[in-house]
Structures
1.
Amino acid sequence: MLLLASVLARRPLAGVLWNSTTGRGTAWRDDKRSRLYYDVANLTLAAIFTPTRKSETNPVSPTPTPFTYRNAYAHRRGRQTAGFRR
């Protein structure tokens, strides 16, 4: 939300952080092209880091069986082994 709000406020957080780190100040805010690039970078970061809701129609896959050589070769014997049984 913070990344989207900073784009709407015309002060992209990516530009603020980058230019404060490199010591270039706030001159980039007056340049339309720079602000556009920082808007795009900010929206890309927002798309990457925005959490998604889990779909209720797509069930979570079951916990996989722990790896053992016995479990790894069970398909060759036509059966599955359970858990940590030996």
Note: Residues 2-49 form one domain.
2.
Amino acid sequence: MPDPHRRILVVEDEYILADDLQHELEKLGVLVIGPVPTVTMALRLLDATSVLDAPSWTSTCAARRASSWPTP
């Protein structure tokens, strides 16, 4: 089950990459917000979401952020 204290917004316009990134982050216990394919959609989602731990504009950024968290 995802940890609600680890939230990352995934912004990726290629569906296969977004889907793969979402699944990999969820395996790490991250609650994925999105993914969304455009910055416009991301900004709308940010307006509707109270707090994020890390917006992810690239998969490398998200993977580094998630892998730095301690494992419970």
Note: The beta strands are 3-11, 30-36, 54-56.
